[in-house]
Amino acid sequence: MKFMDEYRDAAIAKQYADAIRSTVTRPWNIMEICGGQTHAIVKFGIDELLPPDLSLVHGPGCPVCVTPLEIIDKALSIAARPEVIFCSFGDMLRVPGSTTDLFSVKAGGGDVRIVYSPMDAVKLAAANPDREVVFFAVGFETTAPANGMAVFQANRLNLKNFSILVSHVLVPPAMEAILSSPLNCVQGFLAAGHVCTVMGFTEYEPLATKYKIPIVVTGFEPLDILQGIYMCVKQLEEGRAEVENQYSRSVRRDGNFPAQEILRQVFRIIPRKWRGVGEIPQSGFGLAEEYSSFDAEVRFGLADYTAEESAECISGLVLQGQKKPFECPAFGTRCTPEHPLGATMVSSEGACAAYYLYRRRKTPSVAVSS
After folding, report:
1. Is the pLDDT of residue 331 over 70?
2. Which domains does the chain have, with CATH numbers?
3. 238's torsion region: left (phi>0), alpha (psi -120 to 50) or beta?
């Protein structure tokens, strides 16, 4: 289709790859934040077009992957209750908890339903006043406005049987956690274009200044990513550390004001635990006091539950850019999409899933369509 081919032109991709090769004079490590970008890089072989001195590091940009184990276990506990209709997007159903997953709960008789919008769950609550309807609210700043609007509307409709299990995380604090780590190897960022469509990119400007690191807001198609890499490399080679916007067809500096307003009204910023990473200060959304009655953790008495991660799964190191999926001893053997150790193997944006799907067999990569 034209709107896709426009950003997958092989001749233009080659021009960008040539420009990157002619610009790079020393080793650089650039991290893409978004799991959608990771999948595009691996699927289209973008990393294989780059000079050997330029490494792409995969970051914690998959919200399903960073949803902590105890939140998954809480979802499983709630979904198994006979009075509950548990609503979720489909990508959460195979994410492993401590002992099982939502798909298995559904197979065992739990009323687990895949929805396409949080407002579908609000409608279910209105239509089923004798049931507790819970929506699994997972994601970065991208999905949070729609989930916040669902709570806002449920409150307006006085729905006492609706609640959400919140696991929203924020990108800038995660970037700062990576940059402040003594193990950090990242020298430039490709920021997630969809997050910036909502939030803008003013939040990244203090990070670029403080850590003297270029940040390029980048889209998701092959040419978007190649252009974003080129812009980042130019900054690195020229000694600049600025925030630039490659994804200008969708992103404005200040973002989407109405979406930000619903976030300010419904949520508050709290510390959040990231699966495989640990707690990051001020890195998540929780419900504001005015809307606390819609908090499923409190409603079902699960607020203080904790769980331990699998010692065998190295997804935390993958999410921090310290390991590639194929460096895990369990990759493709004890950890597969059918029997995953961690969420990075089953999420549609997980780095391990991308490598399992596109790089498990040593076949030549096709960069872009011609």
Report:
1. yes
2. 2-63+171-245 (3.40.50.11750), 64-169+255-299 (3.40.50.11740), 315-358 (no CATH)
3. alpha
